[in-house]
Amino acid sequence: MEDAATAKQRRVWQRAAPGYDRMIARPERGLLAGSREWIGERARGRVLEVAIGTGRSLPFYAEGTALTGLDLSPAMLDVARERADGLGLAPELVEGDAERLPFPDASFDAVVCV
DSSP string of the chain? Predict the structure, then answer.
C-alpha cells in the first residue's frame, strides 16, 4: 500500500513527465554537465538506475550493460521507453518505489541514481 507522500510524488512526476526534458536541459548543460556520461562510463554489468525518469542517461551506458530502470512515474517510464526504442536499446523499465525495491538482494552489480 502506498502512503500519501509517495502518492503525491507520483502525481508530481506524472505531471512533470511531458516537459521534464526541456526543464532539465539547461541545468545539465551547466552544473550537471558530464554527470550522466561519467556514471555511464563506470557502471558495468547488471545495473539498476533508480529514478530513471525519461531515460536521459540511456545513451551513456557501455555496450553490454544489462540495465534495469526503476521509476515511480508510469509517464516518465513511457518517455524512457520511447527514448530506448529510438536508440535501439532494450532496458528493463519497472514502475516502483525506491524505498521498496521490487528486486531480490544482490540482483545488481551497480546501483546508480543520476
Answer: ---HHHHHHHHHHHHHGGGHHHHHHHHHHTTTTTHHHHHHHH--SEEEEET-TT-TTGGGSPTT-EEEEEES-HHHHHHHHHHHHHHT---EEEE--TTS-SS-TT--SEEE--
How far is CA 75 from its chain centroid?
12
- Tens of pLDDT, residue by residue over 76-96, are 999 999 999 999 999 999 999
d(CA 1, CA 7): 10
Q: Are 21 and 80 in contact (CB under 8 A)?
A: no
pLDDT digits (tens, 9 = 90+) for 6-50: 999 999 999 999 999 999 888 888 877 888 999 999 999 999 999
